[in-house]
Design brief:
The protein is mostly beta strands. It folds into two domains: 61 residues; 348 residues, Porin, CATH 2.40.160.10. It is 13% helix and 46% strand. The chain contains four helices and 17 strands. A 16-stranded antiparallel beta barrel has the order 1-2-3-5-6-7-8-9-10-11-12-13-14-15-16-17. A hairpin with a 2-residue loop joins β15 and β16.
Length: 423
């Protein structure tokens, strides 16, 4: 009889607490307390009823099945983040000339995902920025002027079957290619074009994925017979050896055509052959890049010696531009150690990446803009430490030490101290 009463009460609580009126939840708290006072339910049973009901309501809203909330509300997801940054950079050029730069920066991003129907969804994102494809930072200064907001991404995803997805528009980078490091692509880039994704599980321990697509690099102009385009092919596999050991690997071909002779972008790293003066000279080569990449994941790697560390990931990438004979290759290698995600107080993660890029290994509008200002023809060490302050907020310290591999080394040290907030 008591179980039947609890079931009836649970159903009633679901209907009432899911309603539009927020006062229902408080009324049900009073009802549960009266049932406890009369001895119908114990305090533990009442609390369990409340928790189970709240979880059921959340599940119904998340899956779009709540009868009391409008469908358009249930089918939309809003997310965002805010980052405050202090940045110090020390440049050392020829004749021991040195320059120290201290700046403050802010980054704000806001994204909305909407489920159109069972097979179609759309995503829209805005962010601070000036139009630079490799940065959504805004630098403090200019006499307290107002800062600009730009369209960061806008795309649609169509999944006619569970194993295939078509993505089109201005996409998030994770929907274009899988990459364990930012050796080739800056993580802020949102490519424009169309990508087809295939995913297939092979038993309980393995799954295959395949990404292919066409990207628009630059619009056609009167000075170019053919507009620069990019063509991507990336097969890959994720394999779980055991509960504590996994491997993810991929091999991609990224072909950038009609780049040779094209005027370099104002966002060029100004370091490739034929691109010594950004925005005014033209590229000497096309970029037909092969790119194997690997990530090895180990859970609780130091359990045997009693050190409680959640995760260790070993990372590596290689790139080679088939269109060039000299300065055509590059690589990155490193690790991530600590918590997989920074979610609460005390969570932490350390990352180290060593990177080398030949002068013409990749198109110089692509690499991480923090690593020697996004130039090629460089070597670099990066060390990053993140520490959780509370739920959805953490501090980050990122340090780069980089230098050129041709001519004067001109070493550069970049230090970034971040306060990150997610919502």
């Amino acid at each position: 009889m008591k179980r039947l009463l609890i079931a009836v009460l649970l159903g009633t609580f679901c209907l009432m607490s899911a309603g539009i009126g927020a006062s229902y939840a408080g009324e049900i708290d009073l009802l549960l307390q009266k049932l406890v006072d009369k001895g119908v339910l114990t305090g533990a049973e009442a609390q369990q009823v409340k928790i189970e009901t709240q979880e059921q309501v959340k599940k119904e809203i998340a899956t779009g099945k709540s009868a009391s909330m409008p469908a358009w509300v249930q089918n939309m997801k809003l997310k965002g983040d805010l980052r405050l940054r202090y940045q110090y950079k020390h440049d050392k050029a020829a004749a021991d000339y040195a320059k120290d730069t201290n700046i403050g920066r802010i980054r704000m991003r806001l994204g909305l995902e909407a489920k159109i129907n069972e097979k179609l969804m759309a995503g829209i994102g805005i962010a601070t920025g000036s139009g630079d494809p490799r940065s959504t930072n805004i630098t403090f200064g200019s006499y307290n002027t107002k800062k600009s907001i730009v369209l960061d991404y806008g795309y649609a995803k169509y999944s006619p079957f569970s194993w295939v997805t078509l993505v089109g528009g201005k996409m998030q980078l994770a929907d274009t290619l899988w990459m364990p490091t930012d050796l080739i692509w800056d993580s802020d880039i949102t490519p424009e074009g169309a990508v087809l994704q295939f995913n297939k599980k092979l038993g309980s321990n393995a799954d295959l994925f395949f990404n292919t697509g066409v990207l628009i690099v630059d619009a056609d102009t009167s000075s170019d017979n053919d507009a620069p385009m990019a063509y991507l092919i990336q097969p890959g596999m994720n394999y779980k050896f055991s509960d504590s050991l996994s491997l993810k690997g991929a091999f991609s071909f990224q072909g950038f055509s009609n780049i040779k002779g094209h005027t370099s972008s104002s966002y060029s790293g100004a370091s490739n052959t034929g691109n010594t003066t950004a925005g005014t000279s033209s590229y000497t080569y096309n970029y037909q890049m092969i790119n194997p990449a690997l990530e090895i994941g180990i859970k609780e790697p130091f359990k045997a010696i009693g050190w409680n560390v959640e995760s260790l990931k070993l990372l590596g990438e290689y790139v080679n531009n088939l269109d060039v004979s000299n300065g055509a290759s590059g690589f990155s290698c490193g690790f991530k150690l600590g918590n997989s995600k920074i979610e609460k107080w005390g969570d932490w993660q350390v990352k180290y990446i060593y990177a080398m890029l030949g002068r013409d290994a990749v198109l110089d509008v692509l690499p991480d803009s923090d690593r020697y200002s996004g130039k090629t023809g460089i070597r670099s060490h990066e060390v990053e430490f993140q520490f959780g302050l509370a739920k959805n907020t953490f501090l980050g310290l990122d340090v780069y030490r980089s230098w050129r591999t041709y001519g004067a080394k001109a070493p550069e040290t970049l230090v970034q101290l971040d306060w990150n907030m997610k919502f």
